[in-house]
Specification:
It contains 2 helices and no strands. By secondary structure, the chain is mainly alpha-helical. The protein is elongated.
């Protein structure tokens, strides 16, 4: 048994990590492609300059992608909080109506029972 076998694997976290790495790899590839398209039009650049511009372009592309992902995640958290609050209020109302219905049913049963015994 190795040290790795002693710790349980959290598959959800593992899959999230893999997804994150795949997203970053895809964003890097998109950034490289966009950078190549951009520098393709700049035929006056020397090869070293072209590589530097492409590297800067890719870095900026990744930074913008990361910022977009962070904004999306934050908005997702905000929406989740809003939906959870709405669900909690709806559940409270449903329980209240159910209790009111049960109380009315019990009161009606008591009235009918009292009338039947009288």
């Amino acid at each position: 048994m190795t040290a790795m076998d002693e710790h349980p694997v959290d598959t959800g976290a593992f899959l999230n990590d893999i997804e994150g790495h795949l997203l970053i790899a895809a964003a890097r590839a998109e950034g490289r492609t966009a950078a190549a398209r951009f520098t393709e039009r700049l035929d006056w650049l020397a090869e070293g300059q072209r590589a530097e511009v492409e590297g800067q372009f890719e870095a900026e592309y990744l930074a913008l992608a990361r910022l977009s992902w962070q904004r999306t995640a934050e908005r997702g958290r905000q929406l989740r909080d809003e939906y959870e609050e709405t669900y909690r209020r709806l559940r409270q109302r449903a329980v209240a109506w159910c209790l009111l219905g049960c109380a009315l049913l019990a009161a009606t049963g008591l009235v009918v029972l009292a009338l039947a015994l009288a």
